[in-house]
Amino acid sequence: MTSSFDFDEVDRFICGTVGPPGGRTFYLQAVAGSMVVTLKLEKQQVALLADYLARVLALHQLPDGPPQAPGDLLQPIIPEWIVGELMVAVNEATGRVIVIAREIEDDSDDFGDEAGGNPQGDDRPWDGGGELRVALSRQQVDAFVATANELMAGGRPACRLCGRPIDPQGHACPRWN
């Protein structure tokens, strides 16, 4: 059975990578006291989450607090599970941004509804695997977005013609064909 986690407060919420550009594995980590939850996810998920969180901060007036240093992933990096979907909400009453990560479903007979939600297609609670729910302060969201943007900028350079990444050994651009 996969583990689920619910944090109303965390010390850190960070993303990071292991490996060289072109072969990096992306991780999400929530740290609350001595509890460390690490999840594996895709680069695109990190980029989209950071972009969405930046827009959430631009649209919502959330209370300021002490600055948050992003920091590095805590070792050892042992993922609980792989992220399949991410959701974001704002709790205006507490001034927190809620990030929910759900485990990727590996059930080939059950495709779920088209919205990617509950496979039963109704309002029953999520029972498709692990879930991480984290309530974040404005500063934690700022730190996450800054770290994610640095990670995206630190990847392989993009080809000027096709936009695909260029590997250290070169790139066979389809536009030169």
Walkthrough of the structure:
This protein has helices at 43-59, 138-153; strands spanning 5-7, 12-18, 25-32, 35-41, 83-91, 96-103, 131-136. The protein is an alpha+beta fold and 177 residues long. A four-stranded mixed beta sheet has the order 1-7-6-5. Strands 2-3-4 form a three-stranded antiparallel beta sheet. α1 (43-59) packs across α2. The chain starts with a strand and ends in a 24-residue tail after the last helix.
Largest sheet: 4 strands, mixed
* Rounded Rg: 18 Å
CATH class, named Alpha Beta
Strand fraction band?
25-35%
Beginning-to-end CA distance, first to last residue? 50 Å
Low-confidence stretches: 109-120
The name of the CATH topology is Secreted effector protein pipB2 fold
The tally of strands reads: 7
Portion of residues within helices: 10-25%
Order of helical and strand elements: EEEEHEEEH
Number of helices: 2
Determine the structural class based on helices, strands and strand pairing: alpha+beta
Instruction: Report the principal-axis shape.
Output: globular
Give the domain tally: 1
How would you state the average pLDDT, rounded? 86
Largest sheet strand order: 1-7-6-5
List the helices and strands and how they pair.
Elements: E1 5-7, E2 12-18, E3 25-32, E4 35-41, H1 43-59, E5 83-91, E6 96-103, E7 131-136, H2 138-153
Helix pairs in contact: 1-2
